[in-house]
Design brief:
GO terms for molecular function: DNA binding. It comes from Lentzea tibetensis. This is Helix-turn-helix transcriptional regulator. The protein has 159 residues and is of the alpha+beta class. It has two domains: 7-45, no CATH class; 56-150, Winged helix-like DNA-binding domain superfamily/Winged helix DNA-binding domain (Arc Repressor Mutant, subunit A, Orthogonal Bundle). The chain is 44% helix and 14% strand. The chain contains six helices and five strands. It has helices at 47-55, 57-66, 73-79, 85-97, 119-137, 139-150, and strands at residues 23-26, 29-32, 71-72, 101-106, 112-117. A three-stranded antiparallel sheet has the order 3-5-4. Strands 1-2 form a two-stranded antiparallel sheet. A hairpin with a 2-residue loop joins strand 1 and strand 2 (29-32). Helix 2 (57-66) packs across helix 5. The longest helix is centred in the last third of the chain and has 19 residues, at 119-137.
């Protein structure tokens, strides 16, 4: 039985078998598929996994970097200073699994692999770019607020 009460379930790209009533395995926990609406504030909502994927620091920077064009693994690693090979690999795999990144392997020796944004990835790229721009624009204000917080006197206990 398939519930049609969720707007995302009626999307033609979503297969009917995917939304059978019951539970399915989602990264880290089981999600009940009998939800009546999409709401990130609900613990069992599958949209939380999407939010988790794009809210990751490296995912945000990867998407923003790839919006400028196709890059190879080494180029991404050089551009994202401080990212480990493991974090880059995991981030790319997660974004590829979620349909935001396209991985293209060319049959050469050694194999050449390129990464680019899919149409879905491009749809979130402006949001990621905006977050990056906002953080750069407000950096001094944030640093001043942190200093003020760290240097404030201890509050008196309430009696």
């Amino acid at each position: 039985m398939i519930s049609s009460c969720c707007s995302f379930r009626s999307h033609p790209a979503v297969s009917a078998a995917y939304w059978k009533v019951g539970t399915f395995r989602v990264y880290r926990y089981l999600v009940d598929t009998t939800l009546s609406k999409v709401d990130c504030y609900l613990r069992t909502c599958p949209s939380r996994t999407v939010l988790e994927a794009i809210a990751n620091k490296w995912a945000a920077l990867l998407v923003d970097t790839l919006r400028h064009g196709t890059l190879r693994f080494g180029e991404l690693r050089r551009r994202l200073d401080g990212i480990t090979q493991k974090s880059l690999t995991q981030g790319l795999r997660t974004l590829e699994r979620d349909g935001m990144v396209v991985r293209t392997v060319y049959p050469t020796v050694p194999p050449r692999v390129e990464y680019s944004l899919s149409p879905l990835g491009h749809s979130v790229a402006d949001l990621m770019s905006g977050i990056r721009s906002w953080s750069e624009e407000h950096l001094l204000e944030i640093l001043d607020a942190r200093d003020a917080y760290d240097n404030r006197p201890e509050p008196a206990p309430v009696s």
